[in-house]
């Protein structure tokens, strides 16, 4: 399959002099178009930092990241912002929604800012996405009037509005109970099956078990990788057990 994302020898540090801390230590990572990858590892191992460099949210690193044919480190901030806006979707632990807007308006806000002329079409699209992710009927609700799982579904809708090539998720299920977490992962799986690549950072073996490929990080390096095959099938418990076994083997 064609490659979507290619990170090579990414090195990233925070601080200066004696305070300097190496957070990404020559990390290389390839991801194919339509891939479904998770990144696991102990707290502080560099997972979120890796996601920020791969997605162009952080440009202060050495090494190269090529996304969809563009070398991101060589792009002007404006071009990079355009790339992020049009080809990438972001889902965080909790969506940063505005309290004074209802769910629908929060979902359409970023796209409306770009393209006010097509307000009607944008709203129609957002409503269709809300239906698709199972939050139809909640359009007019305040963000305080929905559950965490519903809010995250709305976050996913917002990320899908630009029809991105990839969704980056930084602990997208981190604020949810295990049932809602699995429902959100099922949704991301469906979105992936429709062709969007998904890269999620998670602490949860059952979340990683939903993806097709798991990368394990330790001390700023990818130390192991697991690709699910026919052997595990779709059985989530077997897949999660395989993830946990690998974590025990590598001591994380
Ligand atoms: N803006 C920053 N300034 C200084 N140090 C930072 C900054 N962001 C992260 N770090 C440090 O970089 C290291 C890696 O952080 P990162 O958030 O990537 O880890 P993580 O694996 O995602 O952790 P967690 O699972 O706890 O979210 C940590 O030691 C963290 O303290």
From TrEMBL:
The keyword Transport applies. Keywords: ATP-binding, Nucleotide-binding, Transport. It holds the Pfam family ABC_tran. Belongs to the ABC transporter superfamily. Residues 5-244 form the ABC transporter domain. One of its GO terms (molecular function) is ATP binding. InterPro entries: AAA+_ATPase, ABC_transporter-like_ATP-bd, ABC_transporter-like_CS, MacB-like_ATP-bd, P-loop_NTPase. This is ABC transporter ATP-binding protein.
């Amino acid at each position: 399959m064609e490659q979507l994302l290619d990170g090579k020898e990414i090195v990233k540090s925070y601080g200066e002099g004696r305070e300097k801390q190496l957070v990404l230590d020559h990390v290389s990572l390839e991801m194919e178009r339509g891939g479904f990858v998770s990144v696991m590892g102990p707290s502080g191992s560099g997972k979120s930092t890796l996601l920020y460099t791969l997605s162009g949210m952080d440009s202060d690193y050495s090494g190269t990241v090529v996304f969809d044919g563009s070398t991101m480190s060589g792009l002007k901030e404006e071009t990079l912002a355009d790339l992020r806006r049009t080809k990438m979707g972001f889902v965080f632990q909790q969506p940063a929604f505005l309290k004074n807007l209802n769910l629908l308006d929060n979902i359409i806000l970023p796209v409306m800012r770009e393209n006010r002329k097509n307000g009607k079409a944008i709203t129609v699209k957002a409503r269709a996405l809300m239906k698709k992710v199972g939050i139809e009927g909640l359009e007019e609700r305040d963000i305080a009037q929905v559950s965490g799982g519903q809010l995250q579904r709305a976050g996913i809708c917002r990320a899908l509005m630009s029809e991105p090539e990839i969704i980056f998720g930084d602990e997208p299920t981190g604020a949810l109970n295990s049932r809602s977490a699995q429902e959100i992962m099922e949704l991301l799986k469906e979105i992936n099956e429709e062709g969007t690549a998904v890269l999620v950072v998670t602490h949860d073996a059952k979340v990683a078990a939903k993806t097709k490929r798991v990368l394990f990080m330790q001390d700023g390096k990818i130390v192991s990788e697991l690709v699910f095959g026919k052997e595990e099938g779709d059985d989530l418990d077997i897949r999660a057990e395989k993830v946990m076994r690998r974590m025990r083997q590598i001591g994380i």
